[in-house]
Each structure stands twice: as structure tokens, then as C-alpha cells.
Design brief:
mainly alpha, single chain
């Protein structure tokens, strides 16, 4: 199979998982006791970060002519970042 298939499969799985997970994230925040203002801020942050980071990454990829390398690095680092973000901060013993 060619590279285009694997890229499309990755995007399908990635955004499919986000689509299943994201609607319940605000309920999780509510269950752990966050205020409505905090939940709203946390819900807005991914969109705001994407709004500013996407042009910066695209500009860097254009300047370095390294689109494929940067995309590969982003695909490899995203699961690591998500695992760090989801790591427990307290022991439940």
C-alpha cells in the first residue's frame, strides 16, 4: 500500500478517536469539580492553539522544505503528548 493510504488511515483513526472522545471531555471536567468558566476555557484552548500554531508550523515546513519530516514527527509526538496529558497526577490508594 502506498504512503497516501497510510496517511489517510492515520487521519481517519485520529479524528475518529477525537470525535468519540471530545464530546465527553467536558463531562469529565465537570465530574472532577472544575468550574464552568474553567471548562469553557479548556474547551476553547485546542481551537485557539490550532488557530495560531497551524500557520507557524506551515511556515516552518515551507521554509525548511521538510513537510514530510515535520508531519512524521508530529504524528509520532502526538501520542506521546496525549499520554503525558492523560497521566494521573495523584495516587488513588
Amino acid at each position: 500500500m502506498n504512503d497516501r493510504f497510510w496517511g489517510a488511515a492515520f487521519y481517519f483513526c485520529y479524528f475518529g478517536a477525537i470525535g468519540c472522545w471530545f464530546p465527553y471531555l467536558n463531562l469529565h471536567y465537570q465530574q472532577i469539580g472544575l468550574a464552568k468558566q474553567q471548562i469553557g476555557l479548556l474547551a476553547a484552548l485546542p481551537t485557539l492553539i490550532t488557530l495560531f500554531a497551524s500557520p507557524l508550523w506551515a511556515g516552518l515546513a515551507d521554509k525548511l522544505r521538510a513537510h514530510k519530516r515535520l508531519l512524521t514527527a508530529a504524528m509520532l509526538l502526538t501520542p506521546i503528548a496525549l499520554l503525558c496529558w492523560c497521566a494521573p497526577t495523584t495516587l488513588c490508594c
